[in-house]
Amino acid sequence: METRPRIIANYDDLDEGVQQLCRLEPKFSSVVDVCPSLDLRRHDDGFERLLSAIVSQQLSVAAASTIWQRLVDAGVTSPQAINHSSDEVLRSLGLSKQKISYARSLVDANIDFLALREMTTPEVIETLTQVKGIGEWTAEIYAMFSLGHADVFAHNDLALQEGARLLLDLPSRPKLSQMRQIASAWSPWRAIAARLLWAYYAYHKARPGVND
User: Fold this and answer.
1) How big is the CA angle at 131 (ends 1 and 106), to the nearest 5 degrees?
2) pTM (global) more than 0.70
């Protein structure tokens, strides 16, 4: 029986995870050298966080922020407000027909967000991916940053795959199955590995003259 997951709640937890991970994979020490300050990246959990994730799908950060702010300003970020808003109103705020469907599916799912806090990572992912519009990546990110799970990884994230390629000097970006195998060696601190790889990817992207 799986126990409740280790939670990354503060920077002390983050630092402990970095130290442990560098023992598991010494190459991560080179990431720490160039990216010494990692963000905790903890967010609130709950309905609004998942609704925001749905709104952001397949949009630029700027476009997603604009639409989300419209929803916030209109007070349409709760299950009750979604239920009481017509499709026409939601479209006027920037939601596509597909995302309106996803938002209503999220309402209908009636997720027990307090119960999610007590679930294992696989249970969280299984629960969330039952909702139309929420895929594995969104569920993994929710478990990682809204719930603080220490041992979860977004295996299909392209930036993480590219970060792993850079870190491990691989000939090509690892595909999903290979990324799962690679990341398994970083358990029980895979969420820390993800933070380090995102930082390492961003560092390389910012270097002059460096291309993917």
Assistant:
1) 120
2) yes
